[in-house]
């Protein structure tokens, strides 16, 4: 795949191992893909309600719903999310495990430990077989407000709310990693102030527009020691 093709593809990584999830996200991000991560099937479920994905890299053994059950439920639900290609990535790589994974509806199966380059090649092979799908966030529900990321539009109680270009950029970036913390200095790269103070100002202004109680934010959360997280309904 060309760098341009990779930039148009959005991948969801679902794994409860924090270290591995971060490594995969960073590796695929460096390869040029847009990447969002989740630590459980429940978190992935919420993301599917807000974003479109071209492929999901899914662990099997996770707290709560495991990868097999999540795949079956997603396939049964149908729609765009139900058709999302799935690469199952797990330490359970015996023949019976592979058969169970493929029977549940995954498109490919890669055992741990794995070579990152093989992961990349398998992802690209699946994406080449898949029909092109539209990418980009859907409407994000933030209580009484709705953010249309593609159009950069915010409405609250049905009324349009004016956003600055900087606020739109910030919300779009947080929306790409909904329910996951985003480093404050990473967010600052899109501003003229690399210290992150400009981001803090934008967050404060956005909370006044979005939050029922800006001093106790529900949707635009501070993650201490890291940065910020957008937590849509």
Write the layout of secondary structure elements.
Blueprint: H1 3-7, E1 10-14, H2 18-30, E2 34-38, H3 41-48, E3 51-52, E4 55-58, H4 67-77, H5 79-82, E5 86-90, H6 95-104, E6 108-111, H7 116-129, E7 136-137, E8 139-142, E9 145-148, E10 153-156, E11 159-161, H8 165-176, E12 182-183, H9 184-188, H10 197-210, E13 220-223, E14 227-230
Parallel strand pairs: 1-2, 1-4, 4-5, 5-6
Antiparallel strand pairs: 3-7, 8-9, 9-10, 10-11, 12-14, 13-14
Distance between the termini: 35 Å
Structural class: alpha/beta
CATH topology of the largest domain: Rossmann fold
CATH classification class of the largest domain: Alpha Beta
Q: Main beta sheet, described?
A: 5 strands, parallel
Low-confidence stretches: 132-136
Query: What does the oligomeric state look like here?
Result: single chain
**Average pLDDT value?**
86
Tally of DSSP helical segments? 10
The H-level CATH homologous superfamily of the largest domain, spelled out, is Response regulator
User: How many structural domains?
Assistant: 2
Total strand segments: 14
- The CATH architecture name of the largest domain reads 3-Layer(aba) Sandwich
Beta fraction = 15-25%
User: Residue share in helices?
Assistant: 40-55%
Shape: globular
Order of H and E elements: HEHEHEEHHEHEHEEEEEHEHHEE
